[in-house]
Amino acid sequence: MSNPDRFEVLLLIARPAAGKSELIDYLKRAPLAERVERFHLGEFEEIDDFPMLWTWFEEDYLLRQMGYPGLHTDEQGMFLGNQLWDVLIERICLEYEKKLRDSPDYHSRYTTIIEFARGKEHGGFQRAFAHLSKKLAERMAILYIQVSWQESLRKNRARFNPDRPDSILEHGLPDEKLEKLYRDVDWEQVSRSDPDFISIQGVKVPYVVFENEDDVTTGRGEALGERLEQRLEHLWALYALKREAA
Question: Which segments of the chain does DSSP mark as H helices, in order?
Answer without folding.
Answer: 20-29, 32-39, 49-65, 83-102, 124-130, 134-139, 149-159, 175-182, 187-191, 222-245
